[in-house]
Amino acid sequence: MALQIQIEGCQEKVTAFVDALKCLPQWRLYSGSKVSLSEDKLQITYTFEDQPYQKPSIPTRNVSKLMITSETGGKFELVLLDAEVVKMDRGMTYIHGRSYDIF
Fold it and tell me: Which residues have C-beta within 8 Å of that of residue 23, sequence separation ≥ 6?
């Protein structure tokens, strides 16, 4: 069964949200429409269909390295698959991805 979603708001945030939705492997986008409501306001309607999960191989996925440095100078490195970086309000950044390190 298909789902339809309508998103309306600031053009930059709507586009970022839709890009994040398109990355979900369990849903397939198969139709959509865009309507510009004003200079900076956008409305998008998309139809999604669920699809069975197919485990992709690691070579076909984006691999990113995230380096975190503590206030005391300690460093921590994390390797992520399909990482997404989203700039939030008040200078905050949200980083989402999957880790494949078995240790």
Answer: 82, 84
* Residues 79/34, Cβ–Cβ less than 8 Å: no
Domain boundaries, the chain: 2-50, 58-98
Contact 98, 81 (CB under 8 A): yes
- CB-based contacts of 95: which residues, under 8 Å, 6+ apart? 66, 80, 83, 84, 85, 86
Question: Torsions phi, psi of 25, nearest 5?
Answer: -70, -20
36-61 pLDDT tens trace: 888 888 888 888 888 766 666 666 77
Look at the pTM and tell me if it is higher than 0.85: no
Specify which residues 68 forms β-bridges with.
Answer: 76
Which residue has 């053009």 as its token pair? Answer: 11
- Fold for the domain defined by 2-50: Alpha-Beta Plaits (3.30.70)
CA 60 from chain centre, in angstroms, equals: 17
